[in-house]
Amino acid sequence: MTGNTLRGLDRGLQVLDALSFSSGMTLRELHRSTNLPKPTLLRILATLEAHGYARRRIADGVWRRSVRSSDTGSLQGLLLDASSEVLDDLCQRLRWPSDLAIYEERSMMIIETTRKKTPYIINWTGVGYRLPMLQTGLGRAWLAYCSQEERDTILADLRTSSSPFDRAANSALLVEQLLAETRELGYGTRVPGFTLRKIGEEKTDGFAVPVIAGDRVVGCINMTWLVSAFDLQTAVSRYLPDIQAAAQAIGERVDARLSLAGAPLQ
What we know:
Blueprint: H1 2-20, H2 27-34, H3 38-50, E1 54-56, E2 63-65, H4 75-94, E3 99-104, E4 107-113, E5 130-132, H5 137-145, H6 148-158, H7 172-185, E6 188-189, E7 204-213, E8 216-226, H8 232-261
Antiparallel strand pairs: 1-2, 3-4, 3-8, 4-5, 6-7, 7-8
Helix pairs in contact: 1-3, 4-8, 5-7
């Protein structure tokens, strides 16, 4: 019994070590790294996930080591830990997919998505996909609710951009009107006609809300749907409370982790 227990512990630590040196690994990559049978790996990963030591990303099934309460240096890791169950539940209830994104280098970068879990055929925008700030609901929600100092820094950076999507940043009046409207509505919307679709895919639309931890925006989540199903007003009336509640739940989970560690948001 003791030998079996120690062997199991040894294997679990072996998997944790492998995850510690990577931003994420597939089951195949873990198998190659540890030489453990895949059924054994699945049992170990399920145990680690149940105890909060590992998480499986919804978007692509990649396994990553969770951010422990004593380690708050990775805000992206905290967001992924805090959002996994919330976004999964949201997609199961609403059926339409959501993306979780953060601001990075003049754009919103998707770090998690439930697009592959929806029963509807929607473009499978993946982790790492970047979206313009002033053209999308995710970008507008971030700009509308971040601090004035951060907003000024982002807009100044956008004004130096050569991307046609960022030209609107040169009009201070237009930007202020856009962000005031976003705050009044409580959600960000896309520029009419803006889409991520590929040729042959149906057009989609979406709206986004901020994820706030403490007094800071740490992410944004959206909901995306096919325009053939309903319009923006219908989507907002049906689903905005659910998206806002999900964003609040994620923010509260991030807050709780930070409070537990006694560390400020970095």
